[in-house]
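queue> pop job 88
queue> type: inverse folding (structure -> sequence)
queue> payload:
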């Protein structure tokens, strides 16, 4: 039996190696997708990540969920391994690239269950509103785009060229503590490695778009069953969670809502066991509402 991997880069490479890589056409290049195919059938689950991220925002989820569902994960336009789209960047243009990619992926059974995080959740809302034939359900995690007051994440400065690798790792660990995690004790070397890699490859700045109300405006047009998941200590919205719950009660009262206790923004990583168990139970409930 092989010993468990401990090197963060090796862990990322190992999980990525079990996926098939696909590219779909996009303006000025391609959007990159990964497919973990275990032949389980059923309605596929498509994971979409957050701002300054990549498919690896779901590194602790894809293979667990893949035991029960056909799993795909995309790198959003201009993030991860996907090429940068032409400027200006806006929600409609980025969502169109995602939707066109979903429609073009070979062998993907459509519609799909989309599970999307933060910036990707907001973009996925526009996909669901404008291309309903592609979406069986939409589960948004720590979503942006509601146009409500945000928390005050504690972010430090960006990495600089003169920094050593150790300096960059320390800086990104602090950024993870300020934005992504509720408990800094849960920040491991893999999380730091992924943060460094993801930020270095980002070619689209998500914050200016995330601060808007795109998803709130799209909600009336989304007919697919929806679920809203947050960590109860999500730094992007604490202490304003009540306003989010009130908005959903007014505009999407049928949506499923759940807060993971003691978890932060990157809840699917920080509390992966609880998140995976919850999602595995949630997807059949959403499937039944189609």
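queue> result:
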């Amino acid at each position: 039996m092989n010993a468990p991997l401990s090197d963060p880069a090796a862990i990322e490479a190992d999980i990525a190696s079990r996926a098939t890589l696909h590219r779909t056409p996009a303006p000025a290049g391609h959007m990159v997708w990964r497919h973990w195919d275990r032949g389980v059938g059923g309605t596929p689950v498509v994971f979409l990540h957050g701002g300054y991220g990549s498919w690896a925002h779901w590194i602790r989820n894809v293979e667990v969920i893949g035991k029960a569902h056909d799993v795909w994960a995309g790198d959003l336009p201009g993030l991860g391994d996907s090429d940068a789209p032409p400027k200006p960047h806006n929600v409609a243009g980025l969502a169109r690239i995602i939707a066109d990619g979903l429609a073009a992926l070979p062998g993907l059974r459509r519609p799909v269950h989309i599970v999307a995080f933060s910036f990707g959740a907001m973009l996925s809302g526009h996909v669901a509103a404008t291309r309903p034939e592609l979406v069986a359900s939409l589960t948004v995690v720590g979503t942006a785009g509601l146009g409500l007051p945000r928390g005050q994440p504690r972010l430090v400065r960006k990495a600089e060229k003169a920094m050593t690798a150790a300096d960059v790792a320390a800086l990104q660990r602090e950024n993870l503590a300020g934005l992504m995690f509720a408990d800094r004790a849960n920040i491991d070397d893999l999380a730091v490695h992924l943060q460094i890699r993801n930020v270095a490859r980002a070619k689209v700045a998500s914050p200016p778009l995330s601060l808007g109300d795109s998803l709130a405006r799209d909600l009336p047009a989304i007919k697919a069953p929806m679920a809203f998941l947050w960590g109860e200590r999500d730094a992007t919205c604490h202490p304003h969670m009540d306003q989010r719950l009130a908005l959903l009660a007014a505009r999407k009262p049928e949506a499923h809502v759940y807060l993971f206790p003691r978890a932060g923004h990157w809840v699917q990583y920080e509390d992966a066991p609880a998140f995976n168990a919850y999602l595995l139970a949630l997807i059949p409930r959403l499937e039944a509402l189609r």
